[in-house]
Every structure is written in C-alpha cells, then in structure tokens.
Amino acid sequence: MTRVFSGIKPTGPVQLGNLLGALRYWVTDQAEADTIFCVVDLHALTVPQDPAELRARTLELAQLLLAIGIDPAQSTLFIQSHVPEHTELSWILECTAAFGELRRMTQFKDKSDNADFVSAGLFTYPALMAADILLYDTDRVPVGDDQRQHLELSRDLAIRFNHRYGDTFVVPEASIPKIGARVMDLQEPTRKMSKSEDSPQGTILVLDDLDAVAKKIKRAVTDTETDVRFDPATKPGVSNLLSILGACTGDDPHAIAERFDRYGDLKSACAEAVVETLRPIQQRFAELSADPAGTAAILATGAEKARSLARPVLERARANLGLLPPA
Ligand code: ATP
Ligand code: LTN
C-alpha cells in the first residue's frame, strides 16, 4: 500500500489555504493509502514561540485535524516531538545536505529577510522536514505549492544518501493539487495566505466566526477591470476568489468564471461556498474541544505506532553510515 506522510506547524490558527491546499487531501488519501499525519511542533521552534501558546496550539491543531476528518482508525496521527527519532535523523540529514543547497531555499529567504533574529534552525529546517518524511519510507507527500522546493530537497537528500551509503531511504514524491495549491491573502493577493502573517482581514481562519468569513470575502481586494476572468498574473484578486470557490465546489476556475459577470455575485457565491465548507468542521471541533483527554489518548497511540515504524528505518541509516552499534 502507498505510504503517505504530511505535516503541519502549530504556528497559528489554521487558515483556509492550509485546508484547501493540503488538509482536505489528507482526508481523502485515508481511503486509499497508509496515511501518517504529524503536528510538527519542532518546526514551530524555528521562530520564537510563547510556551503556553505553543502547548495550547499544538493540542488545538490536533483537534482540528480530527474535526476535518482525520480518522485515527485509518491514520496515524501524532506530535513530532513525541518521536525523538525525527531529531536524530535530522542531524544525519544536515550532514548530507550542502550549505549552498539550504541557502537557496526560498522559504528561508522569505522568513529571514526582515527578521530581527534568524535562528540556525530556520536555516537547517528543510533537513528536519526531510527526516520527517524519510523516516516512514514515504512514497507520497500531499502539500501546498509553497513546499515544492523542500520536497525536491528531501528527494535529493534521499538519493544522495542512498548513493553514498547504499539503499536506505524510499525517494518520496510531492503531491500538489491542481486547484487550491496556493490560496492568496484576500487583501494582498500577490502574497500567499499564511497563519503566521499578521493580516486578519486577508486571512480566513477555519475557526473564524462564519459571518466574519463572509464579510472578509466580500471585502476582498479585486482588480481594476470589471470582467470576471481566471488569470492569476493580471487579475490576482479575482483569480484567487475563483480558485477558492473552485476548491470548495470541485469545479474548474476557468469554467466558474464563465458563470459570473460581476465581482459582487462571484464574491457572494464564494462566501457561501466557504461558509458551508467550514460549518461542519466548526461543529465537530466544538465537540472535540470538550474532550481534550480523548485527543491526548489518540496522540499517545499515534506516537507509539509512529515510533515503531521510525525505529527500524533509523537503525538502517545508522548501520549503513557505519555508526558503531551499542553492545
Ligand atoms: P506559516 O505561516 O507558519 O509558515 P502556513 O500557514 O504556511 O504556516 P504550514 O503549517 O507551513 O502553514 O503548512 C501546512 C500545509 O498547508 C502545507 O502543506 C502548506 O503547503 C499548505 N499551505 C500553507 N499555506 C497555503 C496556502 N496559502 N495555499 C495553499 N496551501 C497552503
Ligand atoms: N515545512 C512544511 C511543514 C512540514 C512538512 C513536513 C510537510 C514539516 N515537515 C513533512 C510535509 C511533510 C511547511 O512549512 N508547510
């Protein structure tokens, strides 16, 4: 069976881009693959975090994943820091990656450009991400378009390691959706929607009040000409709304554009589709939040399962590298 692995950082409340670009595919993948999903809390540490907030967000994110339909009977769901094999393999992969290769990562450039403090972890982050993936003999990684370069690096590291030390890792494939892979900020449609950027009017949170969701969409920045056309280069605002609507309904954004003459009608349809996508998720989330112990138990089982899968792969890497086994 195909092994699928993916992760999400507890760096802020989950936004619509996370859902449409990645999380909804996690749910559908469950039926056809052996799926492993991880709240990558160690990745959140690349930028300073408030400890109490990090703890609360990590649990909340796990609850949200359950609310969108991750089913612990079908998938392994766990917290990255509960499985120490991730950090051990990460060191090995830092020693496999080249400095110049990490320096070319555009996410590093974006996040370090105007930062007051740039941690060494922000730079080596892609090696930890590769470790997450390679530890589970992963075949396929469902992610949004922004992770394409990191996935390419994970593949390169697996290939290089296998070449140097003999067959050790499965070389993973990225799986990036055709529609919804890059949901843009509603106020600044040339920038991707992101949970850690401070853009409350431009970001739709999955747990936002539903009236506020509709308002944000109706106030979204559109473009100067008035025709409805899907063309992200010249009409980023309108194209973003068409993509969002397409991702919610399963229709092609070009075909949707034909159905609308006016921005106002497109905005109303988009708002309704997003609200109806979020409503059932919010209802399930409310039920799950009433039982944090239930989620903790699911995560404990998940971590145990994940460790049992990760340990032999790490052992394989250690042996092939020539690390002397303990007596
Ligand atoms: P941060 O703001 O902390 O960088 P983020 O909102 O970009 O976070 P991640 O935790 O890094 O979210 O990503 C989780 C998944 O969501 C990844 O697969 C990522 O590609 C996807 N994703 C994030 N933002 C978008 C977006 N705007 N459109 C489509 N997919 C997205
Ligand atoms: N780097 C990713 C989050 C991430 C991830 C992973 C995704 C960490 N480890 C493993 C897929 C597989 C991000 O910034 N969105």
From TrEMBL:
<keyword id="KW-0648">Protein biosynthesis</keyword>
<protein>
    <recommendedName>
        <fullName>tryptophan--tRNA ligase</fullName>
        <ecNumber>6.1.1.2</ecNumber>
    </recommendedName>
</protein>
<comment type="similarity">
    <text>Belongs to the class-I aminoacyl-tRNA synthetase family.</text>
</comment>
<dbReference type="InterPro" id="IPR024109">
    <property type="entry name" value="Trp-tRNA-ligase_bac-type"/>
</dbReference>
<dbReference type="GO" id="GO:0004830">
    <property type="term" value="F:tryptophan-tRNA ligase activity"/>
</dbReference>
<dbReference type="GO" id="GO:0005829">
    <property type="term" value="C:cytosol"/>
</dbReference>
<dbReference type="InterPro" id="IPR050203">
    <property type="entry name" value="Trp-tRNA_synthetase"/>
</dbReference>
<dbReference type="InterPro" id="IPR002305">
    <property type="entry name" value="aa-tRNA-synth_Ic"/>
</dbReference>
<keyword id="KW-0067">ATP-binding</keyword>
<keyword id="KW-0030">Aminoacyl-tRNA synthetase</keyword>
<dbReference type="GO" id="GO:0005739">
    <property type="term" value="C:mitochondrion"/>
</dbReference>
<dbReference type="GO" id="GO:0006436">
    <property type="term" value="P:tryptophanyl-tRNA aminoacylation"/>
</dbReference>
<keyword id="KW-0547">Nucleotide-binding</keyword>
<dbReference type="Pfam" id="PF00579">
    <property type="entry name" value="tRNA-synt_1b"/>
</dbReference>
<dbReference type="InterPro" id="IPR014729">
    <property type="entry name" value="Rossmann-like_a/b/a_fold"/>
</dbReference>
<keyword id="KW-0436">Ligase</keyword>
<dbReference type="InterPro" id="IPR002306">
    <property type="entry name" value="Trp-tRNA-ligase"/>
</dbReference>
<dbReference type="GO" id="GO:0005524">
    <property type="term" value="F:ATP binding"/>
</dbReference>
